[in-house]
Amino acid sequence: MNGDFTLSLLESQGDYKNSSASLTGSGETLFSLYPTSRFPFTATLGLKSSERRRSFGENDSLTTLSLGLEQRYRTLGHDIYQGELYAETNDSRNDGIEQRYRLALSADNSWSEHHALKSSYNFTRRDSSRLKVADRRGLIEQTDTSRFFSRYRFNPQASFSNESFLSLFDEEQRYANRTRTERDWQQNNSLLWRPLKYKRWRLSGFGRLATREVDTSDGGGAKRDTLDLGTGVSYDYSTALRFDGQLSVGGRRDNEQTYATHNERLGVSYRPVAIRWRTYDYNRFARASVRNSREEDGSSQQLAGSLGHALTREFNFSFAEDTRMQFDQQFASNFDSRADSTDDKSVIHRVSLTFRRVEPGVSSFLRTSVEDQRAFDVLEADIKEAQRYYLQVNRTSTLSRYRNWEADMTLEYLDELRESGENISRSYARGYVSYVDNRLLNVRSLSFRSSLRLNKKYETRSGGRDQNLFDDEDEYEASWENRLTYRVGRLELNSDLTAFKRDGGEDYRFNVRARRYFGDF
User: In which domain of life is the source organism classified (predicted)?
Assistant: First the structure.
């Protein structure tokens, strides 16, 4: 039998002062029905009490009691059965009492190399009672959710999955004498056929049938049925040239009871041409797609196409075997005719350079990229031009057997121009420095970790329809975390001190945690 007890004390100061204490314990034991079986059983019990004191307004206190049970069983045939039960009660001075329950069951069965079944069932319940404060209107809520999922694989290429979801919501306002219920039921069935290979041909297919119904006690509700079928064909003309084709048929029907509306949508899409030409470090592609859809108010067509290439090349230096450099270039020209009678044409060009060097005890990494995107004939609120510049530098160094440090810095700049004339510029700066010492002061059981993180964002908006718009926003956040760990025998002591600095002010958090192990740990 194994287990541990943990005592944690937390003190934080910011917009409000928060003090909390928690005690948790867990235990695990093993049963053996026969020599090769393992039947572990785990139990966890937790108690937490916290007090929140505001500089203005009323204070609040919260008490949490939780209990968790977990059971796992594996048979000789490698079938796995697992069950979990969790219960939690929260008692708040201002928000009343809240109870949560969760039940999870799962099974993984394999009859042979080609046949397998995975299934799971999850049930959750949430009860909330806010009867302590009169201005809450005596609100009582109950939410039950059930989810069942199964996937059956009947050969290496094909599988069938089913997912069902049911949600029941009850609300009662005792002082207002009102009740409301809502039921949400969903079901998804899908069939996936992975590519079957025959000489140079590949064939794949999929099917999906989904249903959703929503009913409320006030007479409202909605229903949606969706059906999608598709197949794909691929032909490898050579090791460098491939032709792809895809055909899909789909339909959707919507019914909404509140407004007595009915809508049907049927669509057919196919991609008759998709050519990929690949060499050692060059990849060119061309794609085209057509979609026809018909609704009650008429029909529409959508045409889309893409043409581009991707280049990847690595460079090795004979004078420095531990250094690698990689160059990537991507270019794509897209065309998309949407159902709102607007044509969306865009050009994207991206270039990136990666530099990596690994030496004994030292690792360096640098990546920089430039991206340019331009769109034509777009809506007023859409992006017309966009540029992105990215730079990341990382360095890791091992000082000794027990000490190492890591530094990382990322700079990013985005510039967007919308069709309305509004210009948006965003600048990001992120970085951190981390130091780890697993034998502080040459004490074997004493370790120390310190990390400093900085995040900064600056955004400006200018232009617009009246050309007089100018607005800027500056955000920053800094945190310094220090952790000291001391472990001797079965006792482990941890202390964390974290300081935050944000736009709204300063904050700190101090946490002391003691853990006692027993059993075979």
Answer: Bacteria
